[in-house]
Amino acid sequence: xxxxVTKVPFINFHKxxxxxxxxxxxxxxxxxxxxxxxxxQNVADFEKEYAAFNQTKFCVGLANGLDALILSxxxxxxxxxxxxxxxxxxxxxxxxxxxxxxxxxxxxxPRENTCNINPDxxxxxxxxxxxxxxxxxxxxxxxxxTAIKKICDDxxxxxxxxxxxxQGATCDGSIAGSFGIINGTSFYPGKNIGALGDAGAITTxxxxxxxxxxxxxxxxxxxxYYNETIGYNSRLDELQAGFLSIxxxxxxxxxxxxxxxxxxxxxxxxxxxEITVPDLAEGxxxxxxxxxxxxxxxxxxxxxxxxxKIGTMIHYPxxxxxxxxxxxxxxxxxDFPIAEKIAETTLSLPIDxxxxxxxVSYVCDAIESFFR
Length: 372
Prior knowledge:
Elements: H1 13-18, H2 21-34, H3 41-53, E1 58-62, H4 65-75, E2 83-87, H5 93-100, E3 104-108, E4 130-133, H6 145-154, E5 158-162, E6 170-171, E7 174-175, E8 182-186, E9 200-204, H7 207-217, E10 221-223, E11 226-227, H8 238-248, H9 251-269, E12 291-294, H10 298-307, H11 337-345, E13 346-349, H12 357-371
Parallel strand pairs: 2-3, 2-4, 4-5, 5-8
Antiparallel strand pairs: 1-9, 6-7, 8-9, 10-11, 12-13
Helix pairs in contact: 2-8, 3-8, 4-5, 9-12
């Protein structure tokens, strides 16, 4: 094994943030000097910068990624009696947003090789109650968004991307988070661009939808103390916006490093028969928010890697349809077998913008040793 590496944490927040500490302090000092703490210049600046990064006309900063999805559906008028098609294999937030607006979750299985929603299965789920499709760019990989957008256009449906994990990924040369009429994202600390707390946003090219979200996030108000609609308190924090502006400048290079690290893993692991490495859909890229392998011997492998001081995680051990929160929908084990198989076999390995070749080598040496 590599002699100069003895442990590899799953994620190292100190590495992710300590290089920015002086600039973060400047953001805090500037905010205190201005005495403007809510929806100030930092938020306005970041919204402009992130819209440009995401190649959309508008970005509206919000308190978190779940609110971004909820308010997106609310702004589109989706509610009780409506159906929204969503992947069976996703983090539960995608489903929660649909439930919170009163609409019905309609799950569609993923392709097993990419783990993202299978566009070929969407049409069969469309009926008179269907109002939107919400694909999730899972694990950092863009979905087959061109194909999904055509399905939505042909059936007069809204496309709403859940882009919480794939800031900077592309499909057919266009950036994820720009395909939908409105799209939600998250800046949770562990994301490719992470705040130092909760944060989120929507992106859109539609000026009316952007204004609706601006109103909904701020108690249903555009003018202080005058409330146009029943709104929420879901504003991107002024301090977090300042931090995100700093980190956004490095996002493309950070994503590039993640992609390089993923190639190191693939080169070493792709020939191990007991492992399935991530696959990409044609025309799609991944920014490798996580690097997840799949194996039938996950529990044993994870335990072994722990003894080597290698951090791992499971994204995600229980698919949404089998969560206690969704027992009322009546789904049972076997209803979405591909999502269930992924949940039972997936294991996420360490990856971040700073991981070094010798660290990846240490992880791969350990995996090879386990299967030998």
